[in-house]
Backbone:
């Protein structure tokens, strides 16, 4: 019995299940029972004594409060007790999509007719009952094949009219131009193609709001009996956040929330860049396709709504019911861009080449999903970013050592394929004591209207304050903000003048549109004008990613940043807030700008990035770090690089110093894993598909039966050689490190703690991604490995990871 | 002002005004400031009613309240030295019947004990017992897991209980205001 549970029990905070279990345990133990009772009595005493409050606002304050203009009509009844059949507005719906087309089709009779449906609803008695829905993806590529693939239990049956039969669809096309709110509303055109019959949709209101500035567009969905055109109105919108929104780059930034109690059935198609969130007592059957980079979240807030999630790219449907999550991938083929690396034959491809990556954004993102009991979209799970989130405990080379990083390679049995080997390659960057290098920092802060959110600008401010606390007399800080216009709010200021810097940070307020590229230009100008030779010159961009590119195209912006990176100014991109869909843009910017990208979802994450790993974030010790591994076919038959799918390089790029690759910061560690199939394993375990004999040439490596490989160094016991190329931060020619590796036939039990922990994180990612290579892997195995590899965990990251494993395992 | 807005704000005010002021007070140590903070919070609510998700209203209010209170504190700390002694919230112009007095003193004593808890425990205990939030809401406000909230509250309560029992045992102690 956990002692915390006794207090939770006394406060009525346990779930029914936990409560029953605890009470059963208490029954058996009179002493514990007495202790629990007295604990409960004391909790009751505290509650009684402390809750009795006489505090209130003064009458004047109250009066003033009710004179403040209110922007939004809100149903008072629904505010505290969400009622079925009632839509209300929901947060964060920048409808910035230049053209967001929603086709909501309803095939209400769908699941009624399909008796073979595996996910037959079973919530008749209790609407609170947890229900997990999980259906395999439809294999057909056509999106019209999707609706069969998902079914949801009905909400309280009163909501559901089972006679609903006719197919219907609704097209709402929204286009947000550079316009204030009223124009935004006129930009909404609604076309009703057909309507649901016999359903009670009369009271539903679909509301979309422009988050940046609380402009709102409502349109009422009328019952089909009186097919009225949709009403669009934009009550009392503040025009600040709306003007300037739009533009084609905004596709992908649009969020939409449908909230309330209604019944949706059948096939829905949604073309929307951003998030679509459904909340309320809704029932959904059929499938929904989302085109564009957004995600879709459907949550039923019984007992509590879970919203505000990020769907990072790809087409994905989330369906949450009371904390359970089902994820549907409508069409696997849409993920072609991000399929995991396959097992590759050493005879055919003896070289594996990739760029290092120290980004960690994916981990923070996955964590946020799990913390709201949702499953992240597969493409949001980038295994290398999960692995590299955890600083490895290998010793770093001394600050004055010749090589900027130490290389460790370890090989042991593979946890999910015991006959396979797993190789862990770790690069540990040398530490750089704070203050060693003078720094010239430019904070570039997005203060557009969308940043006006407790988890955005206030968190940016706190993060920057934390960073400022660490600065010294050798450091200089300037700050540039961008919204509708661009301003230097703090000229380059010495790090000892903390009060000035903090005052400037405190004065930031959000409002207006987003004109990011002008901000970037100005920030780079500031950085160049204060350039410190041999120092840290860096622009730190803080944004929610709602990045309106003012240069003519994203390519131009990338080109601009690439060029600036050559000037020696580096870029860090810090992403903030939920509803962030420009993960990809930010990552691209960071890559092009010789920088790093972190996602800051909490104060503790800000502390990790800006305080605990400040040197890693700010000081680059090596750039264009590439790894190439050559495998010895006599020892290894096949290999598979785990993660780094988006970082693969052509083998020729390895020696090409013009090819950009990843940076490593001070104290950073970069870890990569290879799963290896030993050559002595009986063949046939992993049959490799062979291609036909070539018709026009013979000397290709892709022969039906690989020509016998001429082994060099036949006597060598080396399984592989790891080669690294890197440049000094200001260098242009690369240096090479080579590390040959023997397989010492190490069992997994004998592996180091770091090896086990890395394997656990990779396994976690593989299970989250539903990897086809996960073999015998289970959550239990992941948990055991993580525990064994936890080590001292001074900063608590690994302990948190163990908690995430529990959440992921519970939601599987 | 629209009726529905009014009702919404009023309902939010009724439910959360006191818990918020008490919570703000745990940062500001000053009743007037706490009131100002909470007024700001409700002004912000009225402006952001559209973007506040009703089921997460509590978490939203307390998060905004905390940020505001800390902002106040920061501005304040630059100007004047913080009063270390807790402001007595219970000063009242009219005398009260003895029994009620006693109860109020008990509450004041308990709050004094809460103030001595470690920061995180203090915050969790305040949000639970004074503000009446659920663990889940507390976890959102404190940006931590529900498990951690349970841990903090449990240990906070145990510490309070031990201390309270000690005070009861020694009638000359600080608790003996009555």
Residues:
């Amino acid at each position: 019995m956990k002692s915390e549970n006794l207090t939770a029990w006394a406060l009525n905070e346990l779930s029914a299940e936990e409560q029953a279990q605890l009470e059963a345990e208490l029954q058996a133990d009179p002493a514990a029972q007495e202790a629990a009772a007295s604990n409960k009595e004391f909790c009751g005493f505290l509650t009684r004594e402390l809750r009795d409050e006489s505090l209130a606002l003064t009458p004047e304050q109250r009066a003033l409060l009710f004179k403040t203009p209110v922007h939004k009509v809100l149903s008072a009844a629904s505010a505290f007790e969400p009622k079925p059949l009632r839509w209300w507005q929901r947060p964060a719906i920048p409808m910035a999509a230049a053209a967001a087309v929603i086709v909501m089709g309803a095939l209400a009779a769908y699941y009624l007719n399909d008796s073979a449906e595996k996910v037959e609803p079973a919530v008749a008695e209790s609407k609170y009952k947890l229900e997990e829905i999980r259906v395999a993806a439809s294999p057909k590529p056509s999106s019209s094949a999707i609706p069969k693939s998902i079914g949801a239990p009905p909400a309280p049956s009163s909501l559901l009219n089972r006679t609903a039969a006719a197919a219907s669809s609704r097209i709402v096309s929204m286009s947000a131009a550079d316009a204030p709110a009223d124009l935004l509303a006129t930009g909404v055109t609604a076309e009703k193609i057909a309507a649901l019959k016999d359903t009670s949709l009369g009271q539903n209101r679909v509301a979309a709001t422009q988050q940046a500035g609380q402009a709102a567009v409502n349109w009422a969905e009328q019952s089909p009996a009186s097919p009225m055109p949709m009403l669009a109105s934009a009550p009392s919108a503040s025009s600040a956040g709306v003007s300037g929104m739009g533009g084609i780059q905004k596709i992908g930034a649009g969020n939409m929330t449908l909230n309330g109690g209604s019944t949706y059935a059948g096939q829905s198609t949604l073309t929307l860049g951003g998030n679509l969130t459904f909340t309320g007592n809704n029932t959904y059957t059929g499938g929904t396709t989302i085109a564009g980079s957004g995600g879709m979240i459907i949550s039923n807030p019984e007992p509590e709504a879970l919203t505000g999630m990020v769907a990072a790219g790809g087409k994905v449907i989330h369906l949450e019911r009371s904390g359970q999550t089902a994820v549907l991938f409508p069409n696997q083929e849409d993920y072609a861009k991000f399929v995991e690396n396959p097992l590759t034959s050493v005879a055919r491809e003896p070289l594996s080449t990739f760029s290092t990556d120290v980004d960690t954004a994916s981990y923070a993102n996955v964590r946020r999903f799990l913390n709201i009991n949702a499953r992240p979209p597969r493409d949001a799970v980038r295994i290398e970013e999960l692995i590299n989130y955890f600083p490895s405990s290998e010793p770093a080379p001394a600050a004055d050592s010749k090589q900027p990083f130490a290389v460790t390679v370890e090989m042991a049995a593979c946890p999910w394929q015991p006959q396979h080997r797993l190789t862990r390659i770790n690069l540990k960057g040398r530490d750089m004591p704070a203050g060693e290098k003078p720094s010239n920092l430019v904070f570039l802060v997005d203060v557009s209207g969308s940043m006006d959110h407790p988890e955005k600008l206030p968190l940016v401010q706190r993060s920057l304050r934390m960073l400022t606390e660490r600065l010294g007399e050798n450091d200089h800080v300037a700050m540039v903000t961008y919204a509708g216009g661009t301003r230097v709010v703090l000229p380059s200021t010495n790090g000892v003048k903390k009060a000035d810097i903090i005052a400037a940070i405190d004065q930031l307020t959000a409002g207006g549109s987003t004109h990011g590229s002008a901000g970037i230009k100005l920030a780079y100008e500031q950085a160049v004008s204060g350039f410190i030779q041999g120092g840290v010159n860096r622009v730190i961009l803080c944004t929610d990613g709602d990045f309106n590119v003012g240069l003519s195209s994203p390519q131009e912006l990338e080109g601009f940043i690439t060029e600036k990176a050559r000037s020696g100014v580096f870029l860090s991109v810090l992403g903030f807030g939920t509803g962030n869909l420009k993960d990809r843009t930010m990552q691209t910017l960071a890559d092009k700008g010789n920088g790093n990208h972190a996602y800051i979802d909490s104060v503790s994450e800000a502390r990790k990035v800006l305080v605990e790993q400040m040197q890693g974030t700010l000081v680059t010790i090596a750039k264009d770090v590439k790894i190439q591994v050559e495998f010895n076919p006599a020892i290894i038959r096949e290999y598979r690089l785990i993660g780094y799918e988006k970082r693969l390089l052509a083998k020729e790029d390895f020696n090409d110093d013009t090819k950009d690759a990843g940076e490593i910061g001070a104290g950073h560690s970069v870890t990569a894993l290879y799963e290896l199939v030993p050559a002595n394993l009986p063949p046939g375990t992993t049959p490799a598909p062979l291609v036909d004999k070539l018709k026009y040439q013979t000397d290709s490596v892709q022969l039906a039966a690989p020509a016998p490989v001429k082994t060099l160094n036949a006597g060598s016991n080396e399984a592989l050689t790891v080669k690294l190329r890197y440049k000094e931060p200001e260098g242009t020619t690369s240096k090479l490190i080579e590390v040959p590796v023997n397989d010492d036939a190490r069992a997994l039990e004998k592996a180091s703690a770091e090896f086990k922990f890395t394997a656990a994180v990779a396994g976690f990612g593989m299970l989250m991604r539903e990897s086809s290579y996960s073999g015998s892997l289970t959550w239990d195995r992941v948990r055991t490995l993580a525990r064994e590899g936890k080590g001292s965990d001074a900063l608590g990251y690994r302990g948190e990871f163990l908690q995430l494993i529990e959440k992921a395992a519970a939601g599987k | 002002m629209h009726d529905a807005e009014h009702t919404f704000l009023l309902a939010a005010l009724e439910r959360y005004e006191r818990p918020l002021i008490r919570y703000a007070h745990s940062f500001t140590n000053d009743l007037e400031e706490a009131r100002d903070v909470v007024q700001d919070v409700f002004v912000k609510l009225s402006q952001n009613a559209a973007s506040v998700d009703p089921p997460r209203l509590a978490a939203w209010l307390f998060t905004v309240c905390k940020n505001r209170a800390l902002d106040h504190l920061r501005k304040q700390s630059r100007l004047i030295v913080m009063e270390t002694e807790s402001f007595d919230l219970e000063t009242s112009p009219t005398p009260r019947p003895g029994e009620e007095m006693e109860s109020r003193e008990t509450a004041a004593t308990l709050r004094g004990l809460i103030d001595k808890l470690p920061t995180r425990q203090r915050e969790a205990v305040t949000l639970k017992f004074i503000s009446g939030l659920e663990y889940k809401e507390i976890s959102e406000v404190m940006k931590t897991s529900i498990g951690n909230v349970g841990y903090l509250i449990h240990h906070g309560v145990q510490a309070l209980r031990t201390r309270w029992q000690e005070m009861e045992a020694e009638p000359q102690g600080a608790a003996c205001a009555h």
About this structure: Chain B touches chain A through 72 residues (CB under 8 Å). The first helix of chain B runs from residue 3 to 28. The CA atoms of residues 109 and 120 of chain B lie 20 Å apart.
